[in-house]
Amino acid sequence: MRHVRLTIVVLALFLAVGAHHGQAAPPDRIRVRIARLAFPSLVSVMVDIVKAAELDRSNGLDLEPISFSAVSGFYAAQATGEVDAGVGGPHVYQRLRLEGAPVRILASYVGLSAMVVISRNPQVRTITDLRGRSLAADMGSSEFAILSIYAKSKGLDLRTDVNVIQAGPPLARAQLAAGRVDAAMTWEPTATLTIRDSKDYRIIFNGRAGWRELTGKDGWQLVVHMRDDAIRRNPAAVDRLIKTFQDGQAYLRTNLDASDRVVASSLNLPAGVLKEAVLFRRIVYDVRPAWQPAVTEALWEMFRAGVDVGLLPRLPDRAIVYRP
């Protein structure tokens, strides 16, 4: 009898030790303040989805979105350290790095297919048809840099050959609807809303097609960055942030209706807008570590193009692309 009791005790201890080693304790969550735009944008779409599905928590992060109502404030917060991380245009981060901001690109985020130029003027069928005409566009955006690089390759200088009216996507949509401009540059999810406005609208430029024509490679409209000081405080946050967005990318593919409901609520988008943009492949999230050779090469291609057309004075230092 004594032998049986001893065996039971030993077995219980064995099971307890096995359970302890077999079930890894969840890692301590790392708090990361991330910049978010308060209006419909590709930045906020994915941030809101991963928060709603708690994908940050399952990856050991506590993402704290900080909302900004203007793009200028959004990038300023990333440059000054008001936030730890953000998502933005590669050429904007190139400029910030050249100005001394400690930004490091961690990963790709969303492809260039999300940016388009729309017109209903039947005489405007390509970008070069805008010579001497008007375009509503946000001249401070990375998307305008992409469009300028493409236009210059066709012999068109947007700043001198086209009357560019400063307008973010919502205002560009309104300018086009009112007939005040010949074309409007916009991006998702506002692009889908704009296309819905009139059956006469046509897409005359798509960012992905234009960039591939220019370089033979895919580029990115947006990439993920984290500040140097934030990386030094919590190096593990890099992998966890990338994994969180990769899980969000997978979640969007397999839970499209649920994702559509999330952003319809958080960004006040009409139901079905996100779903339509994803199904038509205008929104393609593509989160890959920046240190993968193909991603690194494509990023430097974008940096060089910005310098070649005179949008940026020089290349950034190599540390702009994070390597573990």
Keyword list:
324 residues, alpha/beta, 3-stranded antiparallel beta sheet, 19% strand
Would you write up a description of this structure?
The protein is of the alpha/beta class and 324 residues long. 48% of the residues lie in helices and 19% in strands. The chain has helices at 2-22, 42-52, 55-58, 71-80, 90-98, 142-153, 158-161, 169-177, 190-195, 207-215, 228-233, 236-254, 256-266, 273-279, 293-308, and strands at 30-37, 61-68, 85-88, 103-111, 115-119, 134-137, 163-166, 183-187, 202-206, 220-227. The radius of gyration is 23 Å and the shape is globular. 46% of the residues are buried.
The ordered H/E elements are HEHHEHEHEEEHHEHEHEHEHHHHH
Rg of Cα set:
23 Å
Number of strand elements: 10
Number of separate helices:
15
Distance between the termini: 59 Å
Q: Give the uncertain stretches in residue-range form.
A: 6-23
Overall pLDDT: 90
Beta-strand proportion: 15-25%
What spatial form do the alpha-carbon principal axes imply?
Answer: globular
How would you write the strand order of the largest sheet? 7-6-8-5-9
Major β-sheet annotation:
5 strands, mixed
How would you classify the helix and strand content by structural class? Answer: alpha/beta
Approximately how much helix is present in the residues?
40-55%
